[in-house]
Amino acid sequence: MFKLYALLSIVSIGLMVFCLIEAVSTDESRMRNLPKLWWILLILFFPLAGSIAWLVAGRPAVSGPRPGAAPAFPEYDRPGRAVPNDPVKDEDFLKKVRERAEEQRRRYEAQKKRDQEKDKDKPDAE
Fold it and tell me: From CA 21, how far away is CA 24, in angstroms rounded?
């Protein structure tokens, strides 16, 4: 029985220390429901209840990556990422893309025209 109490005490103290550090390091403008000083006092005077209350009602709502976290798409953060490595190859690639787009547009227009002609040739079902 003593081991269970010791384990619960260690978990409670660890949770209190974690929540206290997090409450102290969090910007007051991001805290919810209470001012920073009240959260710290609540965690100190009521370690288990205050820690649970902080986790449930005091922590800032997660609205994006934390400061210092790796960006979701690091390739977008590279400086000069929009500059082509080889301008000649880049121009050739873009020319091929434009030609392919024009060809697809022509095929689409031709198919659309054929479909309209078929619709005109069909007799009405009435």
Answer: 5
Q: pLDDT digits over 82-116, tens only?
A: 666 788 888 899 999 999 999 999 999 999 999 99
Residues 6+ apart with CB under 8 A from 90: 84
Asked if 26 and 36 count as a contact pair (C-beta separation under 8 A), the reply is yes
Contacts of residue 77, Cβ cutoff 8 Å, sequence gap at least 6: 71
34 CB-near residues (< 8 Å, 6+ apart) = 42, 58
Q: Which residues contact 48 (CB under 8 A, 6 or more apart)?
A: 12, 15, 16
CA separation for the pair 126, 118 (Å, rounded): 17
Tell me the C-alpha distance between 26 and 37, whole Å: 11
The pTM (predicted TM-score) of the whole model is 0.48
